[in-house]
Each structure stands twice: as C-alpha cells, then as structure tokens.
Design a protein that fits this description.
- It is a single chain.
- By secondary structure, the chain is of the alpha/beta class.
- Helix content is 34%, strand content 20%.
- It folds into 5 domains: 139 residues, Rossmann fold (3-Layer(aba) Sandwich); 64 residues, ATP-grasp fold, A domain (Dna Ligase, domain 1), CATH 3.30.1490; 126 residues, 2-Layer Sandwich (D-amino Acid Aminotransferase, Chain A, domain 1); 164 residues, 3-Layer(aba) Sandwich (Rossmann fold); 155 residues, Alpha-Beta Barrel (TIM Barrel).
- Helix 2 crosses helix 3, helix 10 runs antiparallel to helix 11 and helix 23 runs parallel beside helix 24.
- It is globular, with a radius of gyration of 33 Å.
- One of its GO terms (molecular function) is dihydroorotase activity.
- This is carbamoyl-phosphate synthase (ammonia).
Amino acid sequence: MLRSAKQMGFSDRQIATAISSNELSVRRLRTDAGITPFVKQIDTVAAEFPAFTNYLYMTYNAVEHDITFEDKGVMVLGSGVYRIGSSVEFDWCAVRAIRTLRSRGVKTVMVNYNPETVSTDYDEADRLYFENINLERILDIYEIESSSGVVIAMGGQTPNNIALPLHRQNVKILGTSPEMIDTAENRYKFSRMLDQIDVDQPLWKELTSFDEAGDFCNKVGYPVLVRPSYVLSGAAMNVVYSADDLANYLGQATAVSRDHPVVISKYIEDAKEIEMDAIAVNGKMVMHVVSEHVENAGVHSGDATLILPPQDLDPETIRKIVVATAKIGEALDVTGCYNIQFIAKDNEIKVIECNLRASRSMPFVSKVMEVDLIEMATNAMLGFPVESYPESPIPKTGYVGIKVPQFSFSRLSGADPILGVEMASTGEVACFGKDKYEAYIKALVSTGFTLPKKNILLSIGSFKEKLEMLPAVKRLRSLGYNLFATSGTADFMSEHGVPVKYLEALEDDNDSQKSEYSLNQHLANNLIDLYINLPSKNRYRRPASYVSKGYRTRRMAVDFSVPLITNVKCAKLFVEALARHKEFEIESVDYKASNRTVTLPGLINIQALIPGISTAGSKDFEEISKTSISSGFTMIGAMGTGIPKGVEDGASLAIALNNGNNHAHCDYFLSMNANVDNANNSLKETNALFIPFSPVAGRAMANVSEAAKYFSSWPINSHIITDAKGTDLASILLLASLHNRSVHITGVSSRDDMALIQ
C-alpha cells in the first residue's frame, strides 16, 4: 500500500497526515521497506534514440536508475518557483555558486524545478534535478548521489527553512552551521545574542492573545509593526497607528493564539534603512558593502530603491554599522554570505533583521562593486582561500549605481499601488550614472516609466509631507510644468505662492460643466503625464479594506498607464533628477561586463606582409601602411615576405625599426620570423612571432618539430602567428594546447582547417 501511495504521487508528509504520524517516521518506514525512488533522464529526443542528458527527475514508477552515481558532487539548492519575494536574484546567486564550484574542478548537482531559470540550463551543472525544494526530496537526492555537501545559502528563504531538519538527518551543510541559521531565524535566540554582544534592536515581543498585544503596544507606544511569526517577504505585515487599527488588523490577518503568535515591534518613524551585505570566514568578516535605501524605513527592502555607494550616510553611522556587522558575524560564526538590515536615526543604529544566506541585493552589489560576493562566499564555504577585500570597501568608482523595483500592479486587480512593509515588486532594474540623479532617472525609464512632458498632478496627504515637497513642487513649476492638485494640496500650494489648477475626484462625472475639474476624467483621457500621490499613513493592508478617493485615483493611474509615485523620498529624488538630467545619453558608464572589454580605435591587421621590411631605404613600409589605413586598419602587424628575409635577427630588426619610424602612416608592431636558428633569441622590440609554413611568407618551416621549440622559448605575453594548414595546423593547435597558450591562424581557406580550429 505504501509503495502504491508513493507511485500515485503522495509525499511522506501527506501520508503522515493521513495516518496521524510525522514525515520522518514515514520516511524511516519507507526506506526500511526498500521503497526508494529511481533517477530517470528526461527524454529530450522524443524517443527517437536513447537520451543522454543531465536532465534528471525521480520517480517510484521505475525498476532501475538511468545513471550511475560516482561523482559525489556538491548539491546547490535553487529558489524554486518565481514569486513575489523570490525571483531571479537568487537564481543569479545559485548560478554563480555553480560556476565557481566547476571552476575549482568540483562536480555539481543542481536542484531546482523552475524551467525559466538559468540554473536549469543543461550546461550549467554536471547534474540537474527538476525536483521540489523540500526535506523529502533533498534527502532522497543527497543519499542517492552520496553528495559531499549541500549549499543552501543561494536559493533564498525556501532552502534556509529546511537547513535544521537536513542537519538533523546528518546532511553535511556547507558554510554557516544550521544551528546558527536557526539562531538568526529564531527571534528569541537572536535577540538574546544581540543583547550579549551589545548591538541594539527595536523593542519587540511575541504575543499570543489580543490583550497581550494591546498591553505591549500601549507600553512602547504607537506606531508598531505587526506580523505573524516566520513570514516570507513581509507577507501579512503591517504598521498600525492606534488600538483600533490593531484590532482591525488582528481580526483580519490571523487568529492570535499559542499556535499562531504575532510578533509586534516598535516602529521607528523617519528612520533611514540601510542594507549590509557581507562575507565572513569562520566568523571573521572579510568583505562588506553598505547600501542606502532612498525610502525611509517602513518600505520592504525588496521594494526599496537602493543606492551604492551610499550618498547621504554619515561616516559615523557607517562605522557603527560595520562594527555591528563584524560582531554579529563573529557571534554567529558565519562562513559564507550574510545580509543585515539596519535602521538609523540621529547616528544611532538598530538591527531589524539578519539573514545567513544570499540576499536579493547581492547581484546588484557585486555588479556595482565589481567584486563577485557569491564567488567569495562559495570559496569560503568549500574551504578554498578567500582574499580579504581592502579595508576601505568602496573604491573611487566615479559612478553611482541605483536599483529600482519593477511592479506589476496593472496585473493585480484591486491592489493598492503603494509601498509598505509587505513586498509587492516582481522585478528590479539597475542603472549607472555619474551621480545618483542620473542613475535614478535612467533606472526609472528602464522600468517603462514615462517622463512627464507637460502636466503633473499632485495629491499630498499629510501637512508634514506637503512642507517637505514644497521646494520640489516649486522646482517643477520653474521647469515649466503645468501643475494640478487636489483640494488640500491646491490650497497649501496657493498659500505658498505656487499656482496650481484644482482637480477633484468627483462622484458623478456626467456633468460636462464639471469635466474641467474632474480628476477622474483627466486621468482617463491621459491629460496627466505624472501623478504624485502621497497618501497619509497607510493604516490598512495593501488590498484596500475600504475604498477611499485616494485609492480610487491611484488605481485609475495604474489602469490608465499614468506614471505614479507614492513615496515622498522618491518624489523628491525624481524631481531633482528631472531638473538635472531630463536629457541624457548612453555613455561608457552605462554598461559593465563580467569580462574585460578593450575598446580599439580601429581594426588590426595582424599579418601585413611588407617585402622590403628589412631593406635599408625601402618605401614598402609606406605603401603598405597607406593601403592599410584606406582599408580601415589603424594598426598592422608588420612582417617580411619572400626574399630578402624578414625580421630574424638584430641587424634586420634595426633596419625594420628605422623603416617603420620614417615611413609608417599607422600604428604598427613588428613580428619576428622564425627561421630554425633563432628559437632562443627573442627580440625585445618585436611583439609577435611568425612561424611560416608557406614560402610566400619567407623561409618556410620544414616540419612542425622545428616549430615546437618556439612554443617553450617564446615569451608567454607575446603573440604567436602562423599560416599552417592541414596536418601542420593540427600539430600547431596541439602544441598550443600542451603549452596552454593562444595562437593566431592566418590565411584559413578550407572547411577542414576551420573545423580543426573550432
């Protein structure tokens, strides 16, 4: 019966629920009975012939494995399905970990079940399992592969959640120990640890009843942050500002009990949120990067706009954050990557959260800093040497990177498009700029945000934010924009000398006489180019529990594709960016590649044959260089051809240099001709060696054995060029491989030679 249940697809947990047992007991029962899954290859060739792929899956509906298990590879757990809170950032981390392991010669086993990811490409890992990231399946793969260890830190929160259960089943977790991961995840343990190392944190408490929650909130004072225990990406979190709000939230969000407690923390208003990504080895921090949030604390870090290097942080604040991060890394004995979120106000810092895993900001940080944090973390986890980053972690980059969120509110019917403690973004875009303003406006445009041309609508809720926005609104007016505003905002701006046109969200828009005052019609008819809506404190969860005018107009902006800004800090940054960089061009700062990119002024001809290169007074150098320039070559590799000889010794070199200096019309370098006798006589003034096999190019090599000696004697930083063909070419390529050096082949004219080179 148990075998039949497994063949029908029931998990151990489902079976345990049905028989009032637990998952591990069912697993023990199953393995004792010899009921284990088989590994099969996914058929990618429609059964035309046997499939030989590393696409694997596990099934109970089989009698044998399709593969053998001798690699004992390292398992890397992916992030699974893309959803809000877990997206492509973690897949980047998993891929970088795999590539680092493979570069070290370590066999890899990737476990993921999302075909949209790069980690599930056939050529990324040695073995790829399309399987769920859960305790049962990871144990199955670990045992059947006899894996040498598991990397759980790259897949986000999902793999982290099974770290301790895996450890209890004797799975070797690479990197930070699962007990320490549990310490960081468990609020009681983590809070006690912070107290012991003298690192501050907001007041908090886990509560199991309405009365306890109310008493705690009255004690610490409103506002407070309320959330159920163990949530992903801020799910069901909210900031509440009064006892009525608290009762409303707890009544809607969760049934508070001992089995379902809520965590309530003191919410610190107008505090700056700061992101710290770090790498440690055996508790010693070897790399750290501080990033700055544009929005104040209260916006989920996944929805926040991130600036690197930080532009507005006090050096003392940064110093305290670095010290606190080092203390936490040491206390948790971290090996690998970790991420900490801080809030700062008046140069005092407090820890919000610590994650002993890769963070969604690490791809951005790695790109901006040009330091692969995941490579460092992976090397640390495997025990490979890790070089500490310089003490001053922020180089003089000459540019600023900004990461902005990408939202999909147009596809989320009814969702209120405002930023809050519950994550809502479905992607992100990062751009570079000479300053934060240029980087920000480029990043916004990259998300599909349309810059305003003429009309901007303002609706600002609180008096405090009206005052804060006043200079920015005046700046918009000075830029020539037509300003519209709702009633309260219009009155305030008029009182402060800013002319605006009044609009109102009318209940009935049928009266044509009212259309000129109708906010709804202006939005619906695309008469507004930008809507800056700054609501009063959001006291309800994002799916609006009541329909306000502000909510309706925000939804209209989304539904009619009107650009919308709902955060005061983002609004101010945007206005300044618009004033400074409304027109911008793509520049060299806008792209960064993993590989070194060399920009050349023109084409290079590496084999420019000059008959009289070593003949005194010859004008051949002049003629060939002129022809090269007219053909688009700005540099030539000058070498001799035929009789007389090319550059083969000191005397011919001196003549060639004199001819080049007096007659060359473009940049050039000289190639020494190999002639059997000069294998141990490399000329310093030449930049390449030419090994001729064709008599046209000079005295040809009689056989490849004569050329072999040059591969061991010629300087490794100087080029080797040859015109070998056929079997000679095959031998030359073998020599190049044996000596681990590159070789340039010229005059390729046959399909067979091209196949050899490929």
